[in-house]
């Protein structure tokens, strides 16, 4: 297996992400708002009803100090109790991350406590990666809020973006007081997120680990697992997977369902860190009140403008969710279709009663003939660049592109459909079924589905990686792969192209030197790609 080597594009993206984490507006504000004592109070001059802001230190699990801010409604209310929202911060972001939204919530009558997760910035301890200590910290913050603010113990909610989303979901499994959760750009299955298809998501993971070292204090356990992850140490794979499963809300689903919190999930179609498939599977298995929202973008980009105070659908629905489930407001959110999706190619929101209802029919595109490729280099077909490609898709409707006729057939297996006269509304999860024969026992393949225009230009609809180990060289075996879920409209007159190659800058590949792959379609077991459609 060739070891991954630094690429200029990857290095540039990692550097840019680190700069965004460290020098974001929130972190720049942190320097001016850093408390000189354990408690600092702030109130807007000339506005007696303005929310009050306190910067405090909260004792977490084991007495670990957690840097936090508390925003409470202004005015005199005669000892009235308010619903409380707890906001764990995102990975590498200071505790001022949510101040803009916290003030809006406080003006609407909520007590809001936002805290820096352990191991980051001014909080103590080591980074636990949403482990048992982080879950215990969340409960300690709820304890503190109920003792030190006018918070109502019967109306406790949690929310967060990314890292804060995962911790909020996990806390709802272990603390029955949490009655409502809004988890934005988070994960339900950590294994299926950074290790989907048994393939390491190298660019995304490098950004997480790199920013963690810059802004926090990684634990020895985290460092050990990440060394094994990036070095592809197969003998430690089972240990790493067990570590990740403990940190996966899906592992604790029965506890979440027993507690019955109202859960709203939000994610992006182009998520580099936590692909939408794992969120959709988790959503389907929830039994309490639930809502799933999917939009164009990449990790945390759908929510980002709301953190700056700009109009934002995600945060608007977050407040509506809490208003209904913590305040009892009859705002209609419970009467809307619980699955809300915004297609990547334009148009308005679409509502569905279930996740499966996105797909009303499937079309199988046959993959005929035999394709042989060498696993020696990237063909040029890839999933893009972490964050950048998703942002371009979100704001410019510009997904990664290739010129399909120019892809080298020695390195890429390519199949194209006839032109689709009426266009296609792709909704849901594309599935690949084929027969593969490898010349080595290990290898990696990446499947890409493209929308191909009349000139041969292909725009990426979806993709996914798959890595195998322990296969018998020369023996044909089946390959079934789910690509990342999406909502994409293929124009009339365009074709679909499936492209399978063996390398992508987004992932660590496991192809030994000189390896080759053959894809075939036996008569008794034909190969195909299944396209989920909405009529």
Automatic annotation (TrEMBL):
Cross-referenced Gene3D superfamilies: alpha/beta hydrolase, Galactose-binding domain-like
InterPro entries, per database record: AB_hydrolase_fold, FrsA_esterase, Galactose-bd-like_sf, Xaa-Pro-like_dom, Xaa-Pro_dipept_C
Family: Belongs to the AB hydrolase superfamily.
GO molecular function, one term: carboxylic ester hydrolase activity
Pfam families: Peptidase_S15, PepX_C
Keywords: Hydrolase, Signal
Keyword Phosphoprotein attached: no
Residue intervals of the Xaa-Pro dipeptidyl-peptidase C-terminal domain: 319-529
Protein's name in the database: Xaa-Pro dipeptidyl-peptidase C-terminal domain-containing protein
Annotated signal sequence range: 1-30
Species lineage: Bacteria, Bacillati, Actinomycetota, Actinomycetes, Streptosporangiales
Species of origin: Planobispora takensis
